[in-house]
Amino acid sequence: MxxxxxxxxxxxxxxxxxSSTTPxxxxxxxxxxxxxxxxxxxxxxxxxxxxxPDNPKKANLIASFGPTLDEGxxxxxxxxxxxxxxxxxxxxxxxFTITERDDKLYGLGSCxxxxxxxxxxxxxxxxxxxxLKAPITIVATSDEESSMAGAxxxxxxxxxxxxxxxxxxxxxxxxxxxHKGIAFMSVKLQGESGHSSNPDLGCNALDAMHDVMxxxxxxxxxxxxxxxxxxxxxxxxxxxLGCMHAGDSPNRICSHAELQIDLRLLPGMDTHATIEMLLYxxxxxxxxxxxxxxxxxxxxPIPPFESxxxxxxxxxxxxxxxxxxxTVAFGTEGHFLQSLGMETVVFGPGSIDQAHxxxxxxxxxxIAPAAETLRHVIQRYCxx
Length: 384
Ligand SMILES: [Zn+2]
Prior knowledge:
By secondary structure, the protein is α/β, with parallel strands linked by helices. It contains ten helices and 16 strands.
């Protein structure tokens, strides 16, 4: 027997599972995975824990119910088990205790996206005594909020195989068929310091950064001219100059400068090729001076994601949720599941407006319609 919805959500939220590229804040997700595995095991799913090869404190879960087909088949309901870090001083309640107020369930990860798992588990229980033609698979990943290491490992292991996948990120029950890619990068310039009274004594990294910034803005303008997609609210690729650290004193030639940027490409754009081109352009822009330039990504970029808006899964979710398909401005594991051959859509309860915020909540009125829509989809792809 499955625990009650509120008990499952309370349990999942009570297990801290912050993921971060900053090691001191990064936590294991194993407790969350173990709870899910136990519940799914109890109701008859075959469960497989996939510990990440380079991090024994992190794991994915793949749990399947129904016939085992050679070619995979059926439907995957996927979500991530980690949360973003939190600022306790801005929370009005304990982030790790589900607190209900005005039909809203407050807690860290309630909306993004531990709340999706009890919804998915409630939906699948309807089918436990039915004869399935294709399996239902629940996938729970690690590190979506930081490196996407969990989803990358699934892609590397070529698991799971299915025909369709729903990623239950908070979309307010709107089927999302596309989002931009995201790459955080640093441009590092190394020059040489010297007394400021004579510029010839050194090589000024800030002067060179001025050229770099000009080139970045020029590159951004060209990208926007060449690439547009009216399905997005911001219909062009974006390149944000986010923060810069440089130098140490007004009377020293600046020897070191670092600029961090955020590049968001539209579906169809080649992330790797665009970054290669960017590197080439920046090198050319500072070729006139003796400065060393490095362009590093903070973690491997999240590629853009796009499914066919007319695909069966998009249209089925639109029909049963009553919401037209759309696009979003946040990144998901969509690309990685799609690369496994699944028709993939992002669809889940809760609003992205509450995600990554203090006092995050899942509105109770999202839960039943989310489960009901999932039941329709399971019926269509896994039953008759
Ligand atoms: Zn999320």
